Amino acid sequence: MPNQWLDQVFKALSDGTRREMIERLTRGPASVGELAQPLSMSLPAVMQHLQVLETCGLVRTEKAGRVRTCHLEPDGLRRAEDWLVGQRTGWEHRLDRLGGFLDSDEGKRS
C-alpha cells in the first residue's frame, strides 16, 4: 500500500468536519446539501472537504441533474483499517514477548 495514499487518508480523517461527513454517510448516501445542512460553513467549503475525501478514495460522488449525491467508499476505510490492524498486531506481539520475558526466570533475575 503506497504511503502517499495512506498519508492522504489520515490527513483527510484528521479534520473533524470530514469525519462528521463520513459518519453521516455511514447511514446511507446523501446530497451535498444534506451533508452541508448541520455544518456552519458555505457550500463551496463543503465541496472542498468532499474533494479531499473523494481524492483519497473514502467518498464517491455522482451528479444527476443539479443534485450531487455522495456515497461512502467502504474499501477506502477498509484499507486504512487493515494498515492499523497490522500495526496493532505487530505491537501486541512485541508486548507479548516482553511480558513473557519479564515473567520468565531470566527476566526475574534482571
UniProtKB/TrEMBL annotation:
Entry GO MF terms: DNA binding; DNA-binding transcription factor activity
The UniProt record lists the keyword Transmembrane helix: no
InterPro entries: ArsR-like_HTH, HTH_ArsR_DNA-bd_dom, WH-like_DNA-bd_sf, WH_DNA-bd_sf
Organism domain of life: Bacteria
Gene3D superfamilies membership: Winged helix-like DNA-binding domain superfamily/Winged helix DNA-binding domain
Keywords of this entry: DNA-binding
Residue intervals of the HTH arsR-type domain: 1-92
NCBIfam families recorded: HTH_metalloreg
Protein name: DNA-binding transcriptional ArsR family regulator
